[in-house]
UniProtKB/TrEMBL annotation:
The keyword Oxidoreductase applies. This is MDR family oxidoreductase. Residues 15-325 form the Enoyl reductase (ER) domain. It comes from the Bacteria.
Length: 328
């Protein structure tokens, strides 16, 4: 056993600190599959973990990073053998279990899925947890019975990771997509992904009325707070909004009016402990439906060595689309 390169988050009286270090392989946590990590990503939650801005990390020392793609090195799990290409999202990786920002990871085989057919490891991480969550949100809207025939779909945090993938997926499914962004200079980018309309997010940032003019039948919200409250108040009769994020805040200053007067539904989306069958469904659908040229257009690749430097940018809303981390 040797060491491998990793980002390690430690904690002392001054708070938490993330730094590159050589991690002792003997210190890897329990798991029946050891993976050589080839690619990871930078999600909003990874930004929180690295900067320590929210208590994402629950164990110290921690290797942060909530998702990876890689190749199995050793396995005692019946579904996986050395050489298999695999993907991991969530299950506490980077929070309670040593995560993705290391050259090696040891995890439960039950947490892994095979690299979806038709995707490279780099593409799987261009999608990453943000993209897979966008797909879970689309599936939630469809399970609710909504379709493009019901009216437009709004996407908040449009130029971010979840938002960018959500636009591409909804547009592909035939929705008229209204993209809400604070970066209207990215209108060309958002239209390229499939947005039919781009609105300034300030339209959703004002005082929340119990009910406002009906504008959309469906939505995918990664912002939360006042934005989500306004989105709900503008949702058409019997529409639904899938809520997955808190980039604008954890609160929800809404009223019951949209629910009891318009029959609007708020659909919660969690990617971390989502059961495996639904994960497999989401990844298979993404491999089938996500336009690879659009995926490439929303993706920036950085080397592993830059992750700590770039982490604050995602919290500042400066990252456009998705970031792939090439582990080298
Ligand atoms: P990004 O930072 O890539 O995207 C968030 C976007 O939200 C930004 O790009 C920006 O879009 C907008 N935004 C940022 N700050 C504010 C603000 N203060 N007010 C209004 N809008 C804001 O993050 P991700 O796409 O990776 O994640 C988005 C959210 O979804 C995060 O909160 C994340 O934790 C959550 N998430 C939840 C998951 C789950 O399992 N439920 C899984 C994955 C993500 P623009 O510039 O276009 O306005």
């Amino acid at each position: 056993m040797g060491t491998f390169k990793a980002i390690v988050v430690t904690k002392d009286d001054g708070g938490t600190r993330a730094a590159y270090a050589d991690f002792d392989e003997a210190e890897l946590m329990d798991g029946d599959v050891t993976v050589r990590v080839t690619h990871s990503t930078l999600n909003y939650k990874d930004g929180l973990a690295i900067t320590g801005r929210a208590p994402v990390v629950r164990r110290f020392p921690m290797i942060p990073g909530i998702d990876f793609a890689g190749t199995v090195e050793e396995s005692r799990h019946p579904d996986f053998a050395p050489g298999d290409a695999v993907v991991l999202n969530g299950w506490g990786a980077g929070e309670t279990h040593l995560g993705a920002y290391g050259e090696k990871a040891r995890v439960k085989g039950d947490w892994l899925i095979p690299l979806p057919q038709g995707l490279t490891a780099a593409e799987a991480m261009a999608i990453g947890t943000a993209g897979y969550t966008a797909m879970l949100a689309v599936l939630a809207l469809e399970r609710h019975g909504l379709s493009p025939a019901d009216g437009p779909a709004v996407v908040t945090g449009a130029a971010g990771g979840v938002g960018s993938v959500a636009i591409a997926l909804l547009a592909k499914a035939g929705w008229h997509v209204v993209a809400s962004t604070g970066r209207t200079q990215e209108t060309g980018y958002l239209e390229g992904l499939g947005a039919a309309e781009v609105i300034d997010r300030s339209e959703l940032a004002g005082p929340v009325r119990p009910l406002a003019k009906e504008r959309w039948s469906a939505g995918i919200d990664s912002v939360g707070s006042t934005t989500l409250a306004n989105v709900l108040s503008m949702t058409r009769y019997h529409g639904a909004i899938a809520a997955c994020g808190l980039a604008g805040g954890m609160d929800l200053p809404s009223s019951v009016a949209p629910f009891i007067l318009r029959g609007v539904a708020l659909l919660g989306v969690d990617s971390v402990y989502c059961p495996k069958p639904r994960r497999l469904e989401a990844w298979a659908r993404m491999a089938r439906d996500l336009d690879r040229a659009k995926l490439a257009a929303m993706t920036t690749t950085i080397p592993f060595e830059r992750v700590i430097d770039v982490a604050p940018d995602i919290l500042a809303g400066k990252v456009r689309g998705r970031i792939v981390v090439d582990m080298g």
